[in-house]
């Protein structure tokens, strides 16, 4: 069972992102504040859930959360500032969209830049340890999947509806065949090392 909070008697927001390792599309982050004693038997790291479970839990999270918000940073910004900074920028954006100001922030991973003057704690594998981070991982993942499904309508040749922009063999084959789109991250290794592509 995941833990409800890191600090007791505190308005605590959990943060996570989705899409760091993708070759195309934005990085998306979410911030979620859950009721202090909230529990749910299925709520877990989004990677451990089926797609149907993720979308069902998104409805639950959006219904029960004290507050939640999503931040989106596009691929051009990722190329300009790097994926780590873009991921943290997306988290800051999500935190800034909350109507309830958290008193403490817990973040999945080991890197974060201080947000305003709010204390924070980085937690490796936090999305499988704390409910609010798991909830944030689900909102970030489902939001990003929806965005990539929409982009798939513009560029169906890359099958983003299925691979969501991740570096699958199919995605890399499509890049080799069709080249890149305005949604690809040009600073990422888009093809296998033995292949070359003239951008």
Structure notes:
- A hairpin with an 8-residue loop joins strand 1 and strand 2.
- It is globular and about 55 Å long.
- Residues 194-199 have low confidence and may be disordered.
- A five-stranded mixed sheet has the order 3-2-1-4-5.
- The protein starts with 11 loop residues before the first strand and ends in a 21-residue tail after the last helix.
- It has a single domain (12-178), classed as 2-Layer Sandwich (Nucleotidyltransferase, domain 5), CATH 3.30.420.10.
- The chain has six helices and five strands.
- Helices cover 37% and strands 15% of the residues.
- The longest helix is centred in the last third of the chain and has 24 residues, at 131-154.
Notable features of this structure?
Nucleotidyltransferase, domain 5, alpha/beta, five-stranded mixed β-sheet, 199 residues, disordered C terminus, globular
Would you summarize the structure shown here?
With 199 residues, this protein is α/β, with parallel strands linked by helices.
What is the strand and helix layout of this fold?
Elements: E1 12-18, E2 27-33, H1 51-64, E3 67-73, H2 75-81, H3 83-97, E4 104-108, E5 120-123, H4 131-154, H5 160-163, H6 169-178
Parallel strand pairs: 1-4, 4-5
Antiparallel strand pairs: 1-2, 2-3
Helix pairs in contact: 1-4, 2-3
């Amino acid at each position: 069972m995941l833990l409800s909070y890191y600090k007791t008697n505190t308005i605590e927001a959990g943060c996570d992102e989705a899409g760091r390792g993708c070759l195309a599309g934005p990085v998306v982050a979410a911030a979620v504040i859950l009721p202090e004693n909230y529990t749910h038997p299925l709520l877990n790291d989004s990677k451990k859930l089926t797609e149907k479970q993720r979308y069902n839990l998104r409805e639950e999270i959006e219904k029960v959360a004290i507050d939640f918000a999503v931040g989106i940073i596009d691929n051009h910004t990722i190329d300009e500032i790097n994926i780590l900074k873009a991921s943290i920028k997306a988290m800051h954006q999500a935190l800034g969209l909350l109507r309830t100001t958290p008193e403490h922030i817990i973040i999945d991973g080991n890197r974060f830049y201080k947000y305003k003057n709010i204390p924070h704690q980085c937690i490796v594998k936090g999305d499988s340890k704390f409910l609010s981070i798991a909830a944030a991982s689900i909102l970030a993942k489902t939001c990003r999947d929806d965005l990539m499904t929409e982009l798939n309508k513009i560029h169906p040749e890359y099958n983003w509806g299925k691979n969501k922009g991740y570096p699958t063999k199919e995605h890399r084959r499509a890049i080799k065949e069709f080249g890149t789109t305005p949604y690809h991250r040009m600073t990422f290794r888009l093809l296998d090392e033995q292949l070359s592509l003239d951008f």
